[in-house]
């Protein structure tokens, strides 16, 4: 970790840097996945390994077993059964089948609509609501709610994720945009890829962050010790950059931050804050066991800005932090 100090600015800035060669800032999604088995996975069942290695929001273990039966999952280039036990050095390849049409039912789930027109809709997602269905679990998501609310959504992401341009974690609250047609979807996706979308979050983290602002430039990939998690690593990773500013220090134990995403990796803020020693309060995966009373991480997507795909006007929206997070902050201030 390299610290770059800049004393010319009004406040000292620290930059946390993890060196890595430049690489394309592409989507985390792909049609082919591959892993080489090390000592941590020796003896695991094939279906269990793949289910843990793939993002658990994207596909179920039952779906993995169906893929194995269909020959889409190979071990050293050969078809195996779900119960096959893996050995060190094995190469597991998953050729993800194209999404098949699925009937995602429109559901009357309440949505807080912040903005809507014929091209785009922006909602304030509550904590606990999953963004899109996963195979085998097709209800109770933002997509189900959008299908009920909107007459049409873009089809670029297929029947499982209609209209979804980006997503936030289930237990992260805040602003999310969706596209109502393919032209709008293409425009918003291009803006995300070009880093011109403004995405700012409010987060409560453990510890007293010593610097007023900083940048975490550290590549993120899957944790080899626990494939459900992500970590800062050079191996099979993608470039990830998060900027932060201190809003308020709450004694020695907590700090309230504003964070801005430059890239959009899975669990990026949660991984980066753990990496610098200030994990998100309430985070069940990357946080501490002794933390605040909150059902999920204290992370809220507060500001979202983008260029309207039809008019070219820059639109920016802001959502106040949810009541549960506000209650935690009030309690900490009263100590």
Whole-number radius of gyration? 21 Å
Strand content: 25-35%
Series of secondary-structure elements, N-terminal to C-terminal: EEEHHEEEEEHEHEEEEEEHEEH
Going by CATH, what is the homologous superfamily of the largest domain?
Pseudouridine synthase
The CATH class of the largest domain is identified as: Alpha Beta
Largest sheet: 11 strands, mixed
Q: Please state the oligomeric state of the protein chains shown.
A: single chain
Shape: globular
* Residue windows where pLDDT falls under 50 for at least 5 positions: 1-30
Mean pLDDT: 85
Chain-wise SSE layout:
Layout: E1 2-3, E2 13-17, E3 32-36, H1 46-53, H2 61-69, E4 73-75, E5 78-79, E6 91-95, E7 113-116, E8 120-125, H3 142-149, E9 173-179, H4 182-193, E10 198-206, E11 213-217, E12 220-223, E13 226-232, E14 241-250, E15 254-261, H5 268-275, E16 299-307, E17 314-318, H6 323-333
Parallel strand pairs: 2-11, 9-16
Antiparallel strand pairs: 1-2, 3-6, 4-5, 4-6, 7-8, 8-9, 10-15, 10-16, 11-14, 12-13, 14-15, 16-17
Helix pairs in contact: 1-2
Keywords: Isomerase, RNA-binding
Protein name: Pseudouridine synthase
Function: Responsible for synthesis of pseudouridine from uracil.
Quick summary:
This is Pseudouridine synthase. The protein has 335 residues and is of the alpha+beta class. Helix content is 17%, strand content 29%.
